[in-house]
Amino acid sequence: MNQHATDFEPRLRMNEVPAPDRVLIVDDHSLVRDGLRSILEISFPGCEILEADSFEQALDALEKADEVDLVLLDLNIPDVNRLSGLKQLRADFPSTPVVMVTGVSDPVIMRDALAAGAAGFVPKSLKRQAIVDALRQILMGEIFLPDLETNDSDDARMREDDAIRARIDSLTPQQRIVLGHLVGGLLNKQIAHELSVSMTTVKAHVSAILQKMNVFSRTQAVILANRIGFID
């Protein structure tokens, strides 16, 4: 699932990556916002860039904006406690991917951020091109986590996999069947035909799956399922 900045770049093609129309940068340091704005302006020409220096301001911007394709959220902003901002954004704006952009590179925090529904964890220490590649991967529906190259990385990945399995285990038998069809690449109407149920029922199952797996898209649900080798 999570490719690293050093090994997924060859897979990306500019014409295959959807460009964001609107991105919100949430960071209380103006220099950081300016740096991220510069990266976005160069990499995604025409993208509207919103800024917020507090979580309260971020909520206001999201309420007023028609749609935001990405939120770049600093882990340590004054008016949130650790991952409380991420959790609130996922609850209030479940279809908006939230990327943690931070100077912290702690495998435990990364695991907790992923469990809370983060679409990626991008250290500020990454080089400009690595940040761009990470955002492109996220825009393609995948999750980005950096390669920390620490002794804890394998343990952290195992904990992440356990968290994914726990989420899938929370699905009902029918939801697991629908997830299996999603993994198989079937569309909603094909799943409805296979299960002899209505499209409305399938959509309800898909919505429940996304909620229980704490993801914002079918693609992300499939990626997580494939990561642990899910077979219904």
From TrEMBL:
MF (Gene Ontology): DNA binding
GO biological process, one term: phosphorelay signal transduction system
Keyword line: DNA-binding, Phosphoprotein
InterPro entries in alphabetical order: CheY-like_superfamily (IPR011006), EvgA-like (IPR051015), NreC/VraR/RcsB-like_REC (IPR058245), Sig_transdc_resp-reg_C-effctor (IPR016032), Sig_transdc_resp-reg_receiver (IPR001789), Tscrpt_reg_LuxR_C (IPR000792), WH-like_DNA-bd_sf (IPR036388)
Response regulatory domain sequence ranges: 22-139
SMART domains: HTH_LUXR (SM00421), REC (SM00448)
Top-level taxon in the UniProt lineage: Bacteria
A UniProt-annotated Pfam family: GerE
Protein name from the UniProt record: Response regulator transcription factor
Native source organism of the sequence: Croceicoccus ponticola
